[in-house]
Every structure is written in structure tokens, then in C-alpha cells.
Write a structure and sequence with these properties.
1 helix; mainly beta; two-stranded antiparallel sheet; 10% helix; 83 residues
Length: 83
Amino acid sequence: MKVKDLIAELETHDPEDEVHISYNYGDYWRTTVAPKVRSVDYLPVKESDYHSMPKVVDLYDEESDEANDHDGMVVVLSASSCR
């Protein structure tokens, strides 16, 4: 989804509506949970072979301060602060 698509969808809703994200909690019953969005961040992501989806990565290596390899910056809606 592009930001313009998200904006267009959100414009069809009441501006006072709460915004949540949903995901499978991973429990026995495969419960879908929907916590409130708490932050909107612009973060670097890289495709993860292990997870078969993009994962958030640090922009710089903590030890060398060199830039880490990433696939691009994306808007991330999160139920908690990502950083």
C-alpha cells in the first residue's frame, strides 16, 4: 500500500475514529488481536529470508557508525514505538 492509498482510505472515515493494526497473536486459537496504533515512523527495512517479509533494520551499525544495507525507507504504523 502506498501512502496516497492509505490517505484515500482514511479520508472515508470519521477523523475521530481510533486506528488499530491487526495481526495473528500466534496462540492456539489463532486469535486476531488489534492494538491501537501508537506511532508512525519512517524506518529502513530489508527483506528477511527467515521471516519471508521485510524487517526493520538499524540505519547505522552501532559499532562502526557505517550505514547498514537496506532495501529502502518505509512508513511503519506500530502499536508501540519502534525506536
